[in-house]
Amino acid sequence: MKVTLIGGNGFGKLHGESYKQLGIEFSVYDRNLEVLEYYRKNYGVKNVFDNIEDALHSDSDMVDIVLPHKMHREISIKAMELGKHVIMEKPIATTVEEATEIIEASVKNNVKFMVAEQYNFDPSLNKAIKLVNENKIGKVHTIIVRDQREYKKTGWRSKKDQMGGGALIDGGIHYIETILDIGGDYRKIDSYSYHGGSSLEGEDTTVALFHFVSGSHGMFFYSWAYRDFPRLPSYEIIGEEGSIYEDVQSRPQEEFKSMTGIRYVYGNPVLNGEKVEIHKEDVFNLEIKGFIDSIKSNTEVPYSHNKAIRNLKAILDIYRRGD
Ligand SMILES: NC(=O)c1ccc[n+]([C@@H]2O[C@H](COP(=O)([O-])OP(=O)(O)OC[C@H]3O[C@@H](n4cnc5c(N)ncnc54)[C@H](O)[C@@H]3O)[C@@H](O)[C@H]2O)c1
Fold it and tell me: Which CATH number fits domain 3-116: 2.40.30.30, 3.30.70.380, 3.90.650.10, 3.40.50.720?
């Protein structure tokens, strides 16, 4: 399997580390020559491209797209029309129409497509959901999902049209994934998205109340405009007979910054006051290996299109309500 990583600069580096750890040959596109040098020097990458068309036309079987959101549709469809399988960073796209076109192109060109959403593979979150399904806390009545930080973003990230919004469609999508994985389908969302003083053109803070079909409720908070922010559990699941929440102490301190060691998202679940031990796995290796295995065996990709579209729809629902 030959892979071309399209967009090596930021998060592309974490994918590059996975290809190395999985022993998969890869080439890289970036418009910044220093970034290409990084891959030559640290990963011994031989084929590098500073022209995206050359990268798309290379002899790879699969491309891995790590580009600004507004480019997702165009570049993924071009790659599929050239017969490449495509894995692409979240969000799937900036509108449901774009997302649908991407999925249709994968069907038409008979290639696999998957959004890279590492939170789907997180061992702590998946264990927490399993414990709920095993009825360890009784009927769930309330779910709390939150994340807060102070980000001063520049470049394409600060531009609303490049992002398709603000903080919510970027980092916030992972926490939408989390609350919907726990809560399931929702009847409606009451929400407010607003600007809390960051450098973004789009919104930087969202508060939302999810009314789930199950009858439970979800409180959601996400912000890039929180000075001196506290470290708090990112998920709490409160049932009639118990509770599960994230143990913040066992959450990685550096949030994927470290290229070595096992990269995962949340600290261990705490079930009814007791920390639950879990088998830690590298979420990036799981998503990338899972995608490659699905190509080799021609089976379903491990992260479904439905979930990628579900998350985008929830975000656009929240954006439609505005502030
Ligand atoms: N899963 C996660 O936790 C996570 C975290 C960060 C970023 N991401 C995603 O990764 C993607 C890229 O984000 P990033 O943080 O790596 O951004 P970045 O700015 O660090 O890198 C963007 C890449 O796009 C290329 N690029 C930008 N504009 C271009 C243009 N006009 N033409 C050609 N190439 C262009 C750059 O060369 C660079 O390689 C986004 O989809 C983002 O949401 C995911």
Answer: 3.40.50.720
